[in-house]
Design a protein that fits this description.
single chain; about 425 residues; alpha+beta; Immunoglobulin-like; three-stranded mixed sheet; 6 helices; 26 strands; disordered N terminus
Length: about 425
């Protein structure tokens, strides 16, 4: 309405104050007046339009500033210092990934650790543990309970004396996977065989501030992790930053593999000469440097002759269970036998062909299976397997049945005397 009134007044003033320009006809004077009126009207219209836009821009700017200040409050004074804004932490819960283990299969190397080992998150955030190696692992929150054994006795009448502990083999989590640290929680076994190990990842949402410690039930305290949960007023790094740092930590850990291999090879005893002129060769089974586990035979290629003897013995640094197994073309036995149950999850029996030794008192030939069985290092043990080479030639591959998927493979090259 203001705009229309301005135009009306302007037109009347122009008509009342028009000039009589000399030398112009009446018609020309009318055109001149009309042009002046149009220019003046346009000027008034543009001025009014600019005024309206200034008012609208000011209103929108004030509203936007109010929204920004509401979501990004200024630092609050607290004593001599300040509590900074959250720096983009946001109000919405986020998901963080922890990589479970790491490996370089080509080098027979595994890192038994969580990446990151310690993680800071906000209340309401979720942690997603993801399998990242072929080694068996768990994510187990004990909540003050003892660490369960990996294997337990089987019920009577079953074809194996041992089975995986059901308390560890399968996931245990609170309702909706919302965790406050008051109860036992467990991922189940991460593994490479989806028919047996159903777990490839595990999630928990943390609902209460505190420090939550967890452990791998397979590798014990050396493979431990920690989740630190804080309220949303405290800054925590964003998930992408955590993931990038985890990848850098894995690269740094695996960069130590060549030095560890050199150290293991330096500990291999030299061959000894027997009274009959044959030799006894020594192979170290596994090697560890901190959380770096070399699932490897040292040396993994060995040249021998018929009549020689090979002793496989644990290195002083390695505490993991292993086998030394020559299959001679026989099928690779599965680690676990699945026995369905009418109620509840199946029983996971340790395969007797993996547990028990076979043909360890006979010279090595190309027929039958020769195996140390599943052996755990008991202090300073004798050789876990000692085989005399029979009258054969050529290559004889062997493996650790527990860690072959991680690269624990060996070979004897048998040459004529």
């Amino acid at each position: 309405m203001l705009l229309l009134n301005s135009l009306h007044v302007r037109s009347h003033r122009a008509a009342a104050q028009r000039l009589e320009w000399p030398g112009l006809s009446k018609h020309q004077r009318r055109l001149k007046i009309k042009a002046g009126l149009i220019r003046g009207s346009i000027f008034v219209f543009l001025a009014a339009l600019v005024s309206v836009l200034v008012v609208l821009i000011g209103f929108n700017t004030a509203a936007a500033q109010g929204r920004y200040q509401k979501s990004n409050p200024l630092p609050v004074r607290k004593g001599a210092g300040t509590v900074p804004p959250r720096g983009g932490d946001g109000e919405h819960p986020r998901t963080y990934t922890v990589l479970v283990g790491a490996a370089n299969v080509a080098q027979g190397a595994a890192v038994n650790a969580y990446f990151p080992t310690t993680l800071r998150i906000h209340v309401g955030d979720t942690v997603h543990w993801q399998r990242n190696a072929n080694e068996g692992h768990t994510v187990t929150f004990l909540a003050g309970t003892p660490l369960p054994p990996v294997n337990v006795p089987t019920p009577p009448g079953l074809p194996s004396p041992k089975m995986r502990n059901p308390l560890l083999a399968f996931p245990t989590a609170p309702a909706n996977r919302r965790y406050d640290g008051a109860t036992y929680a467990n991922s189940g076994f991460f593994g490479t065989d989806p028919m047996i190990y159903q777990v490839q990842s595990f999630d928990l949402t943390f609902t209460k501030p505190g420090t939550y410690n967890y452990v791998c039930a397979v590798h014990g305290v050396p493979m431990s992790g920690q989740i630190i949960v804080v309220d949303r007023r405290q800054h925590v790094p964003p998930p992408q930053q955590v993931h990038e740092q985890a990848r850098r930590s894995i690269a740094q850990a695996l960069a130590k593999v060549p030095a560890a291999i050199a150290k293991a090879n330096a500990e291999v005893p030299r061959p000894t000469v027997n009274p009959d002129g044959t030799k006894t060769f020594h192979v170290l089974v596994g090697f560890s440097v901190g959380q770096l586990d070399l699932v490897h035979f040292f040396p993994n290629h060995l040249t021998v002759r018929p009549g020689d003897t090979v002793d496989w013995k644990f290195s002083m640094e390695d505490m993991a269970p292993h086998t030394v197994t020559f299959l001679n073309g026989n099928p690779d036995p599965v680690d676990l036998l699945v026995v369905p149950q009418p109620n509840g999850p199946p029983l996971l029996l340790v395969n007797p062909e993996v547990i028990f030794p076979q043909n360890t008192d006979k010279p090595l030939t190309r027929k039958g299976v020769y195996s140390s069985g599943n052996v755990v290092r008991p202090g300073d043990p004798p050789p876990i397997l000692s085989l005399k080479i029979g009258n054969i030639r050529g290559r004889q591959p062997y493996k650790c049945l527990l860690h072959d998927s991680s690269g624990m493979l060996g070979r004897l090259d048998i040459v004529p005397k």
